[in-house]
Amino acid sequence: MDKKIVFITGVSRGIGLEIAKCFLNDGYFVINPKIIEVSPEYSTAETVEQFICTSSPRKKRDDLRQLIRDENVTNAFIFCNRKRDIATLKQSLERHGMDVECLHGDMSQSARNAALKRFKDNEVRLLVASDVAARGIDIAGLSHVFNFDIPHNPEDYVHRIGRTGRAGMSGRAFSFIANEDDQSYLSAIEKLIGKTIPTLQGDSKTDKGSAKASSQKPSAKTDAASDDQAPTNDNKTATRKAKGQRHQNRNVEGERDQPPDCSGNSFRDTEHTPAFLLKHPA
Q1: Is residue 69 pLDDT above 70, yes or no?
Q2: What is the 3-state secondary structure (H, E, C) of 100-159?
């Protein structure tokens, strides 16, 4: 009786294909099998709207928080490249009143399961994660993916944004570009997926259905709460003036507040007597 064997894998290239070849060479599978792909390799879903956000290393956290406020975020993955940055970003978001959990490879399995359960149960809205969450985790109705750090490997980008826009639902993915290295990683990603990702225009509120954002002045609350704001030139000038005033007001014992009056024709007419004329005890 003829037998039909179907080998199903979520990744038809790389490791998955190598395993299939091993079985073929050992005679376990039929020769010259037919390969059926649901979608082209490394393609991104049409249900995911993708945007690029230009920023700087100092402003990235501020820009991320503003984007989260402006977007209608139901729940979101926020991806970082380095595990040490995950804790820093989590603390920053918590300081600004956002409910957030973290997920990375250094956590124990029980801790990872607990964090993921809280996220799935909608106890927290944001999950800051490493690429450990980019594969094999299916969250129903995930609305957003934020690449706080753009991935160095272009294939990781496809897996990251693939967490949203699943099962025919729509999703939105934002990636931050903060330096020249990020720009080179973006070029590699666009080459892999075969499309140019539009850049989000403006500094704040996004407009659903387009890649443009309407300009909006940051609120006073946001400015006051910012933990990444660099000192301005006015602040630096005021600091220097304050230091100079303190220096002027500082008197050393034995010194006069002002220079002595040295007017007159002789030492007797002045308020100052040179040290060499003073009588010192033997």
Answers
A1: yes
A2: EEEECCCCCHHHHHHHHHHHHCCCCCEEEECHHHCCCCCCCCCCEEEECCCCCCHHHHHH
